[in-house]
Inverse folding.
């Protein structure tokens, strides 16, 4: 049974930074491609970043490219999303995804 637990969200001012973490149980981050999504009220869910398991290749949505970085620490079995130069439009519930599994998310509020 896969469980994904996100942490690291919070409230920051425009231009600030946050680092989100996703600690899965029941799987190793090194064995699967994983992604970060976000959802805010009234908007469609958006995939913001993903990392390929075998190549380590990363991909980003245009809205976060150059500001967000997805990474993983295999030793800690943790997936990260480093978010810099945050904007008000980055306000959303962020959650990590592996296949059809997702966590409950962590709220990011930028004001």
């Amino acid at each position: 049974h896969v469980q994904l637990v996100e942490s690291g969200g919070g409230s920051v001012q425009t231009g600030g930074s946050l680092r989100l973490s996703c600690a899965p149980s029941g799987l190793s981050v090194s064995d699967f491609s994983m992604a970060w999504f976000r959802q805010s009220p009234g908007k469609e869910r958006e995939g913001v970043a993903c990392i390929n398991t075998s190549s380590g290749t990363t991909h980003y949505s245009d809205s976060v490219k150059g500001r967000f970085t997805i990474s993983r620490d295999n030793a800690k079995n943790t997936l990260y999303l480093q978010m810099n130069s945050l904007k008000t439009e980055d306000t959303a519930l962020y959650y990590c995804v592996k296949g059809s599994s997702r966590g409950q998310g962590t709220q990011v509020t930028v004001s």
Q: What stands out?
A: The chain has a mean pLDDT of 95. The first strand starts at residue 3 and ends at 7.
